[in-house]
Amino acid sequence: xxxxxxxxxxxxxxxxxxxxxxxxxxxxxxxxxxxxxxxxxxxxxxxxxxxxxxxxxxxxxxxxxxxxxxxxxxxxxxxxxxxxxxxxxxxxxxxxxxxxxx
Length: 102
Known about the structure:
Layout: H1 4-7, E1 8-15, E2 20-27, H2 30-36, H3 44-51, E3 59-63, E4 68-74
Antiparallel strand pairs: 1-2, 2-4, 3-4
């Protein structure tokens, strides 16, 4: 089974303001990008399961020139809140590495 870590050369996650997180998936070439960027395994339900995001608010933005998929979703709590565990969201991408793409 192909996993995200097998087809992406780089993943990163970061703040997209105090209420949103953005994850960038840089695929290892145009073929991988075209084959996987619209895969249902990377759909809104995945972000509901992994991050507790409302699927109706998950946004997918493919960037063909960079062979990249940008996914944004609302944070479970505002940045810097009392329950904050990753202030800059720099480690959020890790949960995606072993997602199976089929």
